[in-house]
Amino acid sequence: MKRAGAMGLVAIMIVGSVFGCGSGGGEDATTTLTPHQFLFRVSRACKQVEHEKYAGFEHAFKALAAGTGELNPSQADLRKLTLEVAVPTLERLPEQLATMSPPPSLKEKTERLIAAMESEIEAIKREPDRYVNGLAFTKTDKAAFALHVSQCTLG
User: Fold this and answer.
1) Phi, then psi, of 29 in degrees rounded to 5
2) How distant, in Å, are the alpha carbons of 23, 55, 70, 150 from that of 89?
3) pTM for the full model?
């Protein structure tokens, strides 16, 4: 019985050392990601923010339609939703990306993507019709393609 228990413990230790244990993230501030790993994380962050934005819009549109039973938002409604749903959600993305440490070969392109996002989000705050009319993220989309993260195209 003791031998079986010891073997089980050894098996758990081996599995733990192979697959890792702990918090799940694995990397600390000194871990250098490969370009592929970094781009995967950037893409995942962009997908997550887009998902949250669309979920926020879905909830807001359902609330708008609740009164009349039909969905026909006015331009004023769309501007309001842009400022109340899209902007706060999208603002998290450049903040998230800024906390990531790109490999040296991707640093400049990553900085350009973050700067473009921040600049265009600020422009949307001043003029929400840019977002409503699909004109908001031309620089961001260009920077995302240059970095090879098409999931980060926001326009």
Assistant:
1) -65, -20
2) 26, 10, 26, 19
3) 0.76
Residue 69: what pLDDT?
Answer: 72
Q: Is the dihedral of CA 41, 150, 55, 116 positive or negative?
A: positive
- Tell me: the pLDDT tens digits for 37-68? 999 999 999 999 999 999 999 999 888 888 77
User: In 69-147, where does DSSP find H-type helix?
Assistant: 75-81, 87-99, 107-126, 129-132, 138-147
- Which tokens belong to 92? 């998290």
Residue boundaries of the structural domains of the chain: 47-155
Rg (CA), the chain: 22
Q: What does the alpha-carbon distance between residue 107 and residue 27 come to, in Å, rounded to a whole number?
A: 18
Token pair recorded at residue 39: 């781009």
Instruction: Answer whether 152's CB lies under 8 Å from 42's CB.
Output: yes
Q: Encoding tokens for residue 152? A: 């980060």
